[in-house]
Amino acid sequence: MRLPWPRWQRQKLRRQLGLSRRYRRMLKLFGALVLLGLALACIASWVLDSYDTAWHPKRSVHQQPTVGDGDGSKGSSPPFPGGELGNIFWFIQVSDIHISRFHDPRRIPDFEKFCTDTIEVIKPDLVLATGDLTDAKTESKVGSLQHEVEWQAYHNILKRSRVMERTRWIDIRGNHDAFNIFSLDSVNNYYGKYSANQKVGSFHYVHKTPFGNYSFVCADATLTPGPKRPYNFFGILNQTQMDLLDTFRVESLKSNQSIWFGHYTTSTVVSPSPGVRDVMRSAVAYLCGHLHTLGGLMPVLHSRHPQGTLELELGDWMENRRYRVLAVDHDLLSFSDLRFEQWPAVLITNPKDAQYLHPGVEPLGRIRRSTHIRILAFSEAPITAVHVSVDGEPLGTGHSAGGPLYVLLWDPSLYLTGLHTIRVKVKDSAGRSSVREQHFTLEENLTPSFGFVQSFILLTDHYVLARLAFIFMMLLNVGVLLAFRFLRVPAGRGLTSQACMSLHLVSTMDTFYYSLLLFNLCTAVGPWFIGELIEGHSGACFAFGVFVDGHFLEGSLTYVVGVVQMLFFNMPLTCYLCWSIHHRGRGNTFQSHFLRPGCRWRTLAVHLFMLLLLTWQVKSCYFLLETYGLMAFFLSPVRTWALGLSLLLVYRAWTGPAPPVHDNSKSVSPS
């Protein structure tokens, strides 16, 4: 017969068992945290590597034997940058002009002065106007409509300034220039009537000089048909258009350099695999606009494609009066982003800025064998001085080599290793001065990387990211409703237990369950609205795309709008109904739950938050009415109908019968 253990031994054993259980839980938690940390580290490493925009030897052009690199025959062969005006031409880019009949009365006269005076001072070989030539918005800025008077104003500026007689003016369409246009033959397609270029679609222009040919390839991703705003914010290139661009790429290999341009950034272009960035892989740069410096948050948006091509987004003319001067000097591309009427304008072409080197296609060996620093200086008044210093040491004053080119003798062998800084100060006879400072390097494979945020904005296919986020959020919202309807939820006093019980209550009450389920399924696969997406042409908008009179436009911005809809209405509505039903289950009414001690302000905050979201939904309905008309307003399950449904559900939650909650050991019965 075994004698019972003394009480003190039993207590000691319990303490030891309790400690061992705590240690095991702590070890499990520690192990989970270690695994989570390793997973996050792997994800962070992958993300940083994906957006590492410095040039690496792995990006060598062994895949492109027709193009020389910095050490190839082209890179070290003459001519080398010297002290004469030769083997150089320059051009201008301007973007997002937004000629408007309603807003900013200075925009039109400023642009006319740019075409008259600025072009006369700089004397570019060509000008690239990369889209959004007109604003095409209603006075309220909500609707979109092609105004012929805006196009006439743009056309008259080109005529009065006689800019097309002094340079080659290449203007292309942007998304605003395609608002509310069903086909290229539409009477309101004023681009074909009033633009200088009048070429619709992608094209290849060869600029011929005595020292070689230079390809300019336009990648036109504007939509046809072009719906009203906002659903043409993303451009689309189909397989036929991609094949045409690839043909242009092959043709451009015969040129000294190829420069691509378009309106959209590559991150806002929907294209079939392997994507638009791959098809422009032989280009030294892709010039674009469209993002308007993101409202001033990103005044500089430049990056480098994985294949090495530079992507250079230009700030808008509309608000910021930005333009860009670019030069191809001995097949090396340099540029300077400038503001209207800020003189002198300065561009250092040799040595080139280290961050914008392209070893894959540029003859960088010519910099190491050059004899002169080369600077383009423009001003309305005569240039009086060009002071040059390197690494803080003055080198001297540049002298004119003819035209706007100023040169200064230098010895590149003094700067063969590391990163160096060149500083140029230009003065004119009007007493104005400008300073241009940039880094340069003569060392192989030393190319500074661009910022992570810039690269994320320009190199991410945002429509893919939005699609994944939309699918995830939709599955989460619907999955939670389904799971809590059929799973048994144990009751408890903790916050998590109460939240789960609230979800179970809502999911088992048929009125709320089927309403929320159908609402979310309609957001996922049903039409958001049916209406006049283009004037005179009806269609339907879905998450996966837009149908307009027999045409289908693949979903892009629709997924972004869907994510916003889920985040700011569908999911908060579900949470608010759970919270309301939870209070009703505890015997509270709408009036009485305000009287609970210590909870009044918290309760008021929840109601105010829901009121704010309902107000946002009302504003979305108003936007739909202003943009697409009465039909879209009344035939919108995700906007107008959803607003009515949400008000009915909230009313039902607070005035309907209280949910029958059993004791803690039992489940909840459906209503």
Care to describe what's here?
The protein is 37% helix and 21% strand. It has 16 helices and 25 strands. The strands form 6 sheets. It has a 6-stranded mixed sheet with strand order 4-5-7-9-11-10, covered by helices on one side. It has a 5-stranded mixed sheet with strand order 3-2-1-12-13. It has a 4-stranded antiparallel sheet with strand order 14-15-19-18, with no helix packed on it. A hairpin with a 2-residue loop joins β4 (203-209) and β5. α11 (462-486) packs across α12. The longest helix has 44 residues, at 7-50. The protein starts with 6 loop residues before the first helix and ends in a 16-residue tail after the last helix. The model is unreliable at 56-73 and 663-671 (pLDDT under 50).
